[in-house]
Write a structure and sequence with these properties.
alpha+beta; five-stranded mixed beta sheet; about 25% strand
Amino acid sequence: MSISYKDMKEFDQETLQGLFLSVDWSSGHYPDRLVVAMRHFSTVFSAWDGEKLAGMICVMDDGSMNAYVHYLLVNPKFQGLEIGRKLVDMVKEKYADYLRIAVIAYNEEAHFYEHCGFKKADDACPMFITSLWT
């Protein structure tokens, strides 16, 4: 297995849906919206095993100071191959001159991000408003 990495924003619905549903993310049920979302991220790095999308990381930035990792996901069939680590490293390299790279991590993900150099904020908590699409 040879993983290649790409910097691209154009994906078909089926490819995105397959990846997002492989990790049980509800956004996978809205592949048409995912296609649009990918086009609007500042950065999308993806990992491929041939024609199979193995993982991706999506970042929003303000063009100067702050970059926000919005999505990082790796198909479970490809987990353990350091794909997530490589994708994070690609983001860290691209945004090396920025003041901050931020991520909202769930507790079960925090250990991974700490190994990638992120630190938990003691004085902040994530906050959300979630809308259910109909």
